[in-house]
Amino acid sequence: MAGIFVYPGFRNLAKVKVCQMSFEKENFLRTRLVRYLQQLDPATSPKWGKMSVQQMIEHYGGDAVRNASGRLKIDKIITPPERLASMREFMVSDKPFKENTKNPLMGENPLPLRFNTVQAAIGALQLELIYFFEAFGKTPQLITRNPFFGDLNFEQNVQLLYKHALHHLRQFGVEPLNV
Fold first, then answer.
1. DSSP notation for 18-82
2. Domains plus CATH for the chain?
């Protein structure tokens, strides 16, 4: 158990492990994700799907992160109630999203670009990530509604954003280290 500090009040190792894993995923979103995106050649073709590098960055920041922070509100949960528990189990698991996972909220073809350059899209993503962490910093009990996974707290949103980020990095051939 070297390297794991057991907080007073934690009664079992499972809770400590969840806390540590959540911190590592939060740290990835705060410090490493943008660096991976900055190193990605904008001309890289996807291994699957139709989005370009810039479209993926704009989708992740403009849709996923904005939804997680509550800035992009989607009131309806489109997952049928009888499937929600299994969707949430998947969300908290280490299983990756499948290649070519269809998002029914997105059209068959990617949206037009919102920004003139990949660098501008990355800058906007950085701002959305900052807003996400600030929103939960100001209101730790904040719950946001995800249209696929339901109402999520901070830790659940971090888990989903992390899983989503890895999915799109892998889409463009990036395998983050120590994941």
1. HHHHHHHHHHIIIIIHHHHHHHS-TTPPPSSSS--HHHHHHHIIIIIIHHHHTSS------S-HH
2. 13-171 (1.20.120)
pLDDT tens readout for residues 72-129:
999 999 999 999 999 999 999 999 999 998 888 888 889 999 999 999 999 999 999 9
Calpha distance 83→144 (Å, rounded): 19
Residue 129 near residue 52 (C-beta atoms within 8 A): no
Tokens representing residue 166 in the block: 């890895």
Q: Is the pTM of this model over 0.85?
A: yes
